[in-house]
Hints:
Low-confidence stretches: none
Largest sheet: 8 strands, mixed
Number of strands: 14
Oligomer: single chain
Amino acid sequence: MPRVVSWNMLGGGNWTYMRQMLTATDPDVLCVQECGQALYNFTPTGVAGVQQALVNFGTADSPLVYEIYHWANPSTQYSLAILTRITPTNLFLNAAPAIAGVGAGALRPILGIGVNLAGANWTIGNLHAPSVFSATGPQIVAYGQAAYAGVAAAAPMGAPWACLGDWNTSSAALLAGIAGNAAVNAPYATHQGGYAIDYLVTTNPMPAAINPVGYSNLPFAADHVPVAFQW
């Protein structure tokens, strides 16, 4: 049963918890935001700005191997990474949507991969929307809508896609009046402030019966908790 997870990890210092995170949530694909400058033996990819590494988070006797695709930004809060235990069929970095009235420095690109999950070639996008400190509610919604539309456009015709991450707005606000897309939410607040702002967006009807899996009590030093989805 495929499983994808999203986690805003609040800085590169929390790579210390990655083995615990991977063991607890058991993801095929993990999308992380605010991941800082991960200290691994990265090499360039064919996508400008994205680097890669193969890391064993386990031991020689009990390996826990993931490929990491990392978009680094000098600001801890702006980096993105995707960890996958299945080699991607595609790798892309969509430019940040231009949003009127929001400075380019507050807008992050969308990192994505194509990956075979349960026999289907899924396109998975990882995003981090601008915060309420740098954009208004309507501007955040506009960013989110443009971001997931870009992920949908990156998917092969007729193939399934999903965009997940820290949206910095509710799914009700993001998808208000939009019938062609649907969100899958965690059964709990995903931010310590009581907000449900980390979730998955895909097509409506959904390409699979995607269900949330709860991990609200994992003791990680971040202000968000991980959100898992499986089908």
